[in-house]
Specification:
single chain, 44% helix, tRNA processing
Length: 270
């Protein structure tokens, strides 16, 4: 291709090649999602439709890029982890961040009706993104534990808050004041004594978020092993989980067998 006198402007581009031999984590967060949730009639404290849409949007990203090892999401956020030796787009930060964000956001819009039916999408959602490198397996595991711990803290608070508002007839400001300074045990006690709710009985997807990971499953008809992306809600805060799963982090081709239930997402793949 012939060069032009204007080509010098390319010299203003900065090199954003990421450090090699490190895990690349792209985390997306919904922008102003409290308002978005209210405008689209999300149920409180958790709307299973919204969570499933988030999961399916993330699933579409993993299907698109084999270089992605796994993804973890909760509420209005999702983290995508690229393989340690990923060389997609020559590890250019801007390329990786924008391609994940655009695929996820467009999928959220595209699959809206799949989960919300006749509920109209009134305006496009917006997700911001950040990219972080983690050099060691310990760092990456602690990152995922941190995000799941965040689920527990936020969901217990929200579950108690909305019980006080929707069932206890408190105003949001009164409920916020009631919960100020309370510990996890206090919130569990409020739920159980005042509303007869045992927080332990809440669905796992609410309490633990969703891990999307590449696994294998035996097809009952062909009896052959099929590679799938499984949506699971395992407890990543327990070290027992990582005894098996840490092998997959270091050796992505080592797929663990899926031993849980067949979710709708899994059924689509077999």
């Amino acid at each position: 291709m012939a060069k032009s006198s204007f080509e010098y402007v390319k010299t203003f581009e900065l090199d954003d090649t990421l450090l090699p031999n490190s895990w690349i984590v792209v985390r997306l967060d919904g922008k102003c999602f409290h308002k978005f949730a209210d405008d689209h009639n999300f149920k409180k404290p958790n709307d299973i439709r919204a969570l499933r849409l988030m999961n399916y949007s993330a699933y579409s990203v993993l299907k698109e890029f084999n270089e992605l090892l796994l993804a973890y999401g909760q509420s209005d956020e999702y983290s995508f982890i690229f393989k340690k030796d990923c060389n997609l787009y020559k590890r250019r930060a801007a390329k990786l961040l924008t391609i994940v964000n655009s695929k996820f956001t467009s999928s959220y819009v595209f699959y809206w009706r799949k989960f919300f039916g006749d509920e109209e999408l009134k305006y496009p959602p917006t997700f911001d993104g950040r990219l972080v490198l983690y050099p060691s397996q310990e760092n990456l595991i602690d990152y995922l534990k941190w995000r799941q711990a965040d689920v527990h803290i936020n969901n217990l608070y929200n579950t108690t808050f909305w019980a006080l508002v929707l069932k206890g007839n408190l105003t949001p400001s009164q409920a916020e004041k009631r919960l100020s300074g309370t510990l996890s045990a206090d919130k569990n006690e409020i739920l159980f004594k005042e509303f007869g709710e045992n927080y332990n009985n809440e669905p796992e997807i609410f309490k633990r978020g969703t891990l999307l990971t590449r696994k294998c499953i035996i097809d009952e008809e062909s009896k052959k092993s099929v590679k799938i992306i499984a949506d699971v809600h395992d407890d990543m805060l327990k070290n027992n989980f990582w005894k098996d799963f840490s092998v997959h982090l270091m050796k992505p081709k080592h797929l663990l067998p899926h031993e849980g239930s067949l979710t709708d997402m899994i059924r689509e793949q077999i």
